[in-house]
Structure formats: C-alpha cells, structure tokens
Design brief:
Radius of gyration: 46 Å
Keywords: Signal
Order of helices and strands: HHHHHHH
Shape: elongated
Length: 198
C-alpha cells in the first residue's frame, strides 16, 4: 500500500508541474529569464496555485480511486487469490470435458422434451381448475385447525404414552376376544328359535 501512495504522489507531481509552468506563459516568445521573477506579484502566484489546486482536485480523486482499484487487484493477485483462480479453472476444465458435456446435453434435451410434452401441457392447463376447487378447502380456519391438531398430537404422542397404549392394547386383546365369543353366543341363542319360523 505504501507503494501506491508514493506512486500517487509521483503522478500528481508529474501532471501538475508542467501544467503550472504552462498556465502562465511568458508574454513574449522570448526564453524564460529568472530575472523576470522579481516582476511577479505575490497575488498572481496565489491565483496560479489556487487555479492549479482546483484543476488537480479531480485528478487526485481519480488517482485515489485508481489506487483503491489497484488494491483490489493486489488482493486478487495474492498467493491465495491465484490459488483460488487456479482451482476454479482446473475444476471448470474437468467439468467441461467430454463425458460431462455430453451428459449435460442429454439431460437438457430430456428436460426440454418433458417440458414440451402434451401431458405436461394438459397438466398445466388443468391447474387453474384444480387450484380453484382446492382453494375453497384451504381457509385460514382450516390451517389453524390442522396446526392445532398437529400441535396436540405432538404433545400427546410422547414415548411414555405410546408405550402405555401398546401395553393397554395387549392387555385388552384377550378381553375383547372373550367378549366377542359371549356376544356371538348370545346372538345365536336369541336368533336360533326365530330362524325355524322364517
């Protein structure tokens, strides 16, 4: 960064010095004589320097932005930046070799054929009707109710509850079997005398 500051100062000096000398040329075509400096008023020198300061302000801004850009390029050209560029180019070269490009072309062709098929066109053309029929079902109240049900189920279905429910079902299964045999016997006893008369 120190190099860029020195570089900026050298460019400003190189660009402003000739402009300062040419801004107030000698009145005649004669060669400049140092003895004529005694005739220059101090006010004229101040005007000359002020004019040059205004002229160089834009140049300094331009050179400042140039040095900032060069700092970005310096970061890009650092060993890490060059290594990253090398990795990208190497990986891109591997990606663009023959099998990958052929597979990509084939994949794009397949996707293009699928998206252009009549079945997809029919599905897309039928979507408005499907969405309008479903839109009546999807109300804010339904979403709230489903959310409440899922939240309640989440709170209810703890590992302990699941284990207890499995145990209860295992305990009740023989009882249900016995009750079904009793009900079956009762029904057959009730309907047996009626069956001969039908």
């Amino acid at each position: 960064m120190h190099f860029f500051k020195i570089f900026l100062a050298a460019i400003v000096a190189a660009l402003t010095l000739p402009a300062m000398l040419m801004a107030n040329p000698a009145p005649s075509g004669n060669v400049f004589d140092a003895r004529d400096l005694s005739d220059i008023e101090l006010r004229s020198l101040h005007e000359l320097f002020d004019r040059q300061a205004i002229n160089t302000t834009g140049l300094i801004g331009l050179l400042t932005s140039l040095t900032q850009s060069l700092a970005g390029i310096e970061q890009l050209l650092s060993p890490t930046g060059i290594s990253n560029i090398n990795e990208v180019v190497t990986d891109l070269a591997v990606l663009l070799k023959a099998p990958t490009t052929d597979q990509t072309k084939s994949l794009l062709g397949t996707v293009s054929n699928l998206l252009g098929s009549s079945e997809i066109s029919q599905l897309i053309s039928g979507l408005p009707a499907i969405l309008s029929s479903v839109s009546g079902l999807l109300t804010p109240a339904l979403v709230t109710n489903v959310t409440d049900i899922l939240s309640g189920a989440h709170d209810l279905l703890t590992p302990t509850f699941v284990s207890e429910t499995k145990g209860l079902i295992a305990d009740v299964a023989p009882l249900v079997n016995a009750i079904s045999q009793v009900i079956s016997a009762l029904l057959s006893a009730i309907f047996r005398p009626v069956l001969p008369y039908i």
